[in-house]
Amino acid sequence: MTEALVMPDTEAAGWVLCDACRGLLWEKRFERMLRVCEHCGKHARLPAAERIRQLLDPGSVTALDFGVSSGDPLRFADSKPYPERLAEARARTGLDEAVVCARGTIGGAGVVIAVMDFGFLGGSLGAAVGEMITQAADEALATRTPLLLVTASGGARMQEGAVALMQMAKTSAALGQLDEAGVMTISLITDPTYGGVAASFATLGDVLIAEPGARLGFAGPRVIEQTIKQKLGPRFQTAEFLLERGLIDMIRPRASLRATLSRLLAAGAPAPRRFEGPRPRLADGLLVLDPDELADRDPWEVVKLARDLSRPTTLDYLALMTRDFEELRGDRAGSDCPAIVGGIGRLDGRWAVLIGHQKGRTVEELTARNFGMPAPSGYRKAGRLMRLAAKLGLPVITLIDTPGAYPGPEAEEQGQAVAIADNLRCMAGLGVPVVAVIIGEGGSGGALGLAVADQVYICSNGIYSVISPEGCAAILWKDAKAAPRAAAALRLDPGHLLRLGIVDGVVTEPPGGSGQDHAEAAQRVEAVVLAALGKLSVLTPAELIARRRAAFRRYTVDGPALEQPVAASAGSERR
Q1: Which of the four, 210, 368, 377, 411, has the lowest number of CB atoms within 10 Å?
Q2: In CATH, which of 3.90.226.10, 3.30.1360.10, 3.10.580.10, 3.30.1490.20 is domain 45-268?
Q3: CATH for the stretch 280-553
């Protein structure tokens, strides 16, 4: 099927026909809309030169001519010799090969870009294309400039046989070198991206963006249907299908691509990572470090306050604390857990990776977010983002608010314990500053999976425990109604946690609690986080890792202990 065919009887009048909805489009308006159908939103294919013109800042483009030319290693011929097909493709497109490489800027942020052109033999991956992609990666590595790959391909080039197949490994190795060097890579998936390109450099980017409706997959739908003898649905392998399954980070319409890419490239650009020092406001009682300064409280009352649905959620905090936040989704293994959200944003002008549990308030929101109880894919998504932070040298801030990891059978089938354990190990070894704030509930390993940090804080109406009071009561007291007694015995309130050294400080909440003033609550958390980052950002990666491991190593039988046990009959604990 062709793209936006010119109607023979209206060509002179400048009308085109959308091949998806068959709607009539005024050609000049169609071009102003970046070749997106105004009726159905279909994104027509773009030649490589037009793609570069749309994405890069005017006047910033420098072509990268690597001097690579195609060969004919197999002396291949079907209905015509391979060299003839190459010559026809060159004459038709004006290109030497199926990819165009350049340097430039997007929103002022530097980028090396490699854009595939489907019009040149279906954007197929041959030796010349693989070499040009690899040399573009080499250029990004040498200049420490982010690499943007714009993909459009039917797969590896059959006319070059196993030589084309080897380009998958070659290009993947090149992106691996960028990972090792801490250079950001972004893939923009356009329609279609299949086969050897999908199974190599197209899906290895730190961030995967797709245009609406773009199709991505290893095997094409015709091959799949012929193999399994089943009809595939119209959404199969589309960007929307992939986003739901956690295989890409986001879908962006063509009109918003420049803005999104500008933010991401700015986050990936080499820059000073040091945050400013402690904020003067910390002296105004925003952070309590001495447990004796905290009033005695009924732990069960604190539990109820921690669960209050009026409290700000992670997304509320991110909206109030950050600018230019871009949510990144999916575990890249087949799922996207909505109970954990995360992405890249600017905190006080500096880029950071922010991750947190997300509950919601209404029944619909809570249900959609699984009441803030993550599945294994949530922890795998978080781990992926933490590793991205370490690669780019960005600090990690986590916001914790969960009753615990989801305990359902499907979570066990998908490896809940393994996913959490992997995060614990990952966080312990991150060579960037990590600050965790318990903004509500800190339930069990589900909370700890985001809380192995250099500094762990808790809001004054938060809780942190090995088990919920109800669970503890059901197991030890054989009575769920004993939850208040269990809450007291578990010492899960901020005062006891600070005395035990489980948390490093208590963030005081606005009068009436965080739910009464979201903006003030966010300002307090932000001030505390920035102060911590100011101190941590002067440390080397090796120092950060050593200090963090030592901090968690101190939890032994000889560690801090509370002097008075809780009476077995006590309904609440008082110091």
Answers
A1: 368
A2: 3.90.226.10
A3: 3.90.226.10
